[in-house]
Write the structure tokens for this entry.
Amino acid sequence: MKRYVAFLRAINVGARVVKMDALRRIFEGIGLANVKTFINSGNVIFDSAPTSPKALEEKLARELRKALGYDVAVFIRSLPEVTAIAEHAPFAAAELKQGSLFVGMLPEPLGASDKRTIASLETPVDKLRLHKREVYWWAVKNFREALFSPARMEKLLGKPATFRNINTIRRIAALIAKPCLVLMLMVPQQQMPQLPTLQPSGIISYRAALIRDWTNAVLQHAPGEDDEALSVVRRWSADDLRDAWLGINVLVALLANPTQKVFSAPQWGRQIPIIITRHDVLMLAGRAEELRRTPGHAAFLKRAALLHGDLALNFGPDPPPAPFNTSFLIPLRTFVKTSDGTQDSLYSGDVNWEFARILLDSVPDVKQDADARQWYRASLSYMLLVEHLDNPHFGHALRLFADAAEVLFLNGCLHESLANPRVQRVVQEIRLPPSTTLDVGSESWELRQAENLFRRALDVNPAHVEARLRHGRTLARLGRRADAASELRQALEGASETLLEYYSALFLGAELEALDQFADARSAYQRAANLFPEARAPRLALSQLTHRSGDRAAARAELAAVLQPYQTDLDDDPWWTYQLTCGRGASDLMADVYRSVGGASR
Amino acid sequence: MTCRSATAIVVALLSAAAGSGLRAQSPTFSSRVEAVRLDILVTQDGRPLRGLAAADFEVFDNGVKQSVDLVSPEQLPLSVVLALDVSASVTGERLRHLTAAGRAVLDALKKDDQAALITFTESISLDADLTSDVATVQEALENIAPDGDTALTDGAYTGITVADGSSGRGMVIVFSDGSDTASWLLEQSAIEAARRSEVVIYGIAAGARDRSFLRELTSATGGRLFETESTRNLRAVFLAALEEFRQRYLLSYTPRGVTKGGWHKVEVKVKGRRASVKARPGYLAGS
């Protein structure tokens, strides 16, 4: 079964009201499984046996017409496609500091004539970019002041389309790709699985074949692409990975030192010897010599790390391996997947992260390597974006790059996330296997860590607005109101990005209210509400402030504007994704690494 | 976000809530008179005690005895707001139990009673505003689609705000199967809003370990928290909450001999009986 998302056009817009339950039944009625809707603007996630998405789109459109009595265009995207849409960056992050980004789904990639039509629809306040079957629409000022009309675009193209806010796409991508908040589980040493005995020989030629396939895959892989090279490694079984891993360790050692004769591999925090025949060492030494010449020692290791990083980031096996996988030698980390504060399942971390880390760490003088630093920034951002809170990965990056403001900042974001009620609730509610604990501190401990890291990031780079914002927010949660207000005021003054301005204003409003500066608090909340008119949080804040003044009727009126069920596709409240937004630069950062490291032509 | 200090005004205007018959019966409830309304539950040996008259009650406002009137519950229709957690954990059997429980409450309402439906995930939605057309609320209830996180505090605050604007006796049933993970508002904000309001909150917590917020919220209004491990008996629990609410007495008085502003501690006693009284512990009044 494969996971898909169907984006339906014009559902719950105007008079076209559709119950989500009825929608689910239509999908289930044609044999689709695990059907789930996401908000009520017509986003349906489901499992299906591998099939032609085009045929499925047509079938669903027929069923929807039969059930609803009108035409509903259906746009199906697979899990990797949704992830790719969420991460595609058609505009530079610096440009997107203003306005809002929307994604329009089209039935097929556009031809040259249609591309010209799209280009002609650009206005001074609307920028459009095409990529695959999507049109990316950046409303430069904001949605309300936009001149571009999706309906006019559809008319000119003669094709239907449906638009979503990029944050909606990102949330769907996070929901389906890494569906839940993922926390690391601490497993005591005595509960580690019994390790298998290493084979001294006999399968060595098989390992050599794997190494040949692996090195070819590294050299042929176009970073960021789900290509055949990636598929070679993705198809490997756990046993294949184990055998390859031993050979890779030997190869990496020989890349660094062609005369090395004794080899080992890291296993559960220690080094274990690798027993290998002289013949195989010579064979691997020959391969290492070739790689040292082309593409070079460091370049090869970086490209190898990118291959495994890509598997871990986007294109890894589904489902992930079961917990406590005894057939593997690498110290797999065990995670708890949670949903809405409750435990969902246990599983082992993606081994490709381990491969990527160890390969990258073998790059000569790695602490001074800009690509390595950028890859860690990108991977930390990604983990925050999908809420895969792999604490040791963050700690490892911090040990390597202790003076990098961004690495300090992202580590601060990790601890801020761990102090979040969503995580803390899991800590309270979860029932874990005996003797295991979550790698999460108390709320106050995590907040203190976050505060310290944000402060250190600001020491390195005082102009880091987002670090200032989050430092202020953390101080507020620690009860240091006046300090928090000062930081948040500075963040608000420095914020050139709409999103950061919104958060700064919203959080500053709360601190001013706590300091009994009610008029200023109201102004700050109002500023946030003006930036995102659909957002609930500032309206709740304003309503509550009015309620405090005793005017309960006015308090209700303040809320009324945002209490209606969704009427458009373009709803959003950045408050809901506050914890994720610190990872929003992941795709740009990874694109930088891809460009810098290079690889097979894309 | 922060704790909020208590500075606000709340003075109830019963005239706005009552029908003309009520005004004829009790002239002190003119629109110019600031009155305090107390929705109280009296029990003896664990059972609601019925048949009491105004003369059976003693009400002390900041220690000063007040002269109270008893409003016949029949004279004021109910305004029942269902504020329901429909986050991702409320799926399958839980959802069926929840909708059945909501349906049972709606079915049990009388002709002039009103109902509203608020659902909350990380967002809040007023799926059906207060109306005596219960079928509208019923339809909205059947359309629930669980998803996302739990903004319990935001949902409870919204329930209070919607119920507080009603013309009837406001009751909010807040259901959640977990703890808050997504609210903007602080718990203390919702609790203080509850103190400022005249609604009675019944909390229904299914499964969650931390129920302190709902306990404090319900206590602030003289309501009650029902705790249940499973959702299997949710229908009976919802109906029990409604039935208990119907058993309450509605007292009102115009404060005499006390200062106008600030927190007023209210104490209600039943003369000559070993009865237990559940009422909001006080109210916030302002200038």
Notes: The radius of gyration of chain A is 26 Å. Confidence is low (pLDDT under 50) at residues 192-206, 316-328, 566-571 of chain A. Residues 57 and 489 of chain A are 50 Å apart (CA to CA).
